[in-house]
Amino acid sequence: MSKNNPGFSTLAIHAGAQPDPTTGARATPIYQTTSFVFQDADHAAALFGLQQFGNIYTRIMNPTQAVLEERVAALEGGTAALAVASGHAAQLLVFHTIMRPGDNFIAARRLYGGSINQFGHAFKSFDWQVRWADPAEPSSFENQIDERTRGIFIESLANPGGTFVDIAAIAEVAKKHGLPLIVDNTMASPYLIRPLEHGADIVVHSLTKFMGGHGNSMGGVIVDGGTFDWSKSGNYPMLSEPRPEYGGVVLHATFGNFAFAIACRVLGLRDFGPAISPFNAFLILTGIETLPLRMQRHCDNALAVAKWLKAHPKISWVNYAGLEDDPNHALQRRYSPKGAGSVFTFGVKGGYDAGKAFVEGLELFSHLANIGDTRSLVIHPASTTHRQLSEEQLVAAGAGPDVVRLSIGIEDVGDIIGDLEQSLAKI
Ligand SMILES: Cc1ncc(COP(=O)(O)O)c(C=O)c1O
């Protein structure tokens, strides 16, 4: 370890945290308070006017949340971060900061079903339009850009298909057109991929998944890469025009390379209110301390399971980028050489009915709508997480009717395979 350039595992444990100055507590305390006492009236005025940083009210900022933000920013290599109540809240605040009514953004077609729903339906009420593109084809993003386009959104490793995306190629399109590239890095986590190093400008996460890692707390985060020039074209007035509610402050001019994170906090989180609870921030921080260990074990277990399934006579196909003959293997080797992640899909021979019987026959696996838990999880996306989608969208999202999705946990791999084996034997 070098003091000036600590390694990833060191940052996962230490970034943002120090012993509590009052009590000496070594673990980050849960600051379970709604509000913070001002030193005097001038101090209060400076905090409210953005002339001084400091805690006012937990909807906007809280010391436990601040340690989480600093830690995730360090792990992703960003300039600043904002932790919020969920991954969906993070996405809402990102788009609220860059979009005006009538604007559009281009998003990869292969995304978590809830994101497809949020972008395609809920965002309509703000008059924000999404245009869908093929993540394997950067030109399909470029072809849809017009003068009202304000950003590009992809998942680094797509849920549920477990497919990797050529982030650098899509970043090139974004840069050519002066647009920010926003990457949802939930499935990979910064242990596997750091999208900012490949040209992304903003990273979002559902912290609910691998970052927290134990299936016990909702959370989300926005990481500001500090690279995008928000002042250039006048297309991002939230950042480039004076803010009347803050005495005419221009956020980009005042906060420079962390202005985006500030804007999401003081204009989005403040007014929409999806704050993360200090208790959840504490649990997620604790989870992040073991992220490198867990993530490697998730990947190693998933590869062993994928190989085993691939050789099984009752399995029709396995889609795991870690398998050498997988069409996505080259991209995985390039972007995520430590492993192909924990989540992947496969088909049981016999289609929908056999898949359903297989899911119901599992005992160690939990049948539920989550990923990124220590426990092994299973779901049938077409009837659950992706059920709002049309048949065509289902196939495009990698969630067709026969698809079973696994999120491989960190139990003993022999027990995971044993459970799959006993369930397959019953079909
Ligand atoms: C890749 C991805 N992004 C975003 C989300 C949304 O996160 P949350 O459920 O924390 O709102 C999910 C949830 O499953 C996800 O899998």
TrEMBL record:
- Superkingdom: Bacteria
What is one Gene Ontology biological process annotated in the Swiss-Prot or TrEMBL record?
cysteine biosynthetic process from serine
Sites bearing N6-(pyridoxal phosphate)lysine, chain numbering: K209
EC annotation from Swiss-Prot or TrEMBL: 2.5.1.49
Q: Which UniProt keywords apply?
A: Pyridoxal phosphate, Transferase
Q: Which GO terms describe its cellular component?
A: cytoplasm
Q: Look up the record and name the cofactor or cofactors this protein needs.
A: pyridoxal 5'-phosphate
Q: Where is this region: Disordered?
A: 1-24
**UniProt entry tagged with the keyword Transferase:** yes
Supply the PROSITE patterns for this chain: CYS_MET_METAB_PP (PS00868)
**Molecular-function GO term, any one:** O-acetylhomoserine aminocarboxypropyltransferase activity
> Transferase as a keyword?
yes
Q: What class of enzyme is it?
A: transferase
- Which family is this sequence assigned to? Belongs to the trans-sulfuration enzymes family.
- Record-linked NCBIfam families: OAH_OAS_sulfhy, PRK05994.1
User: Under what name is this protein listed?
Assistant: O-acetylhomoserine aminocarboxypropyltransferase
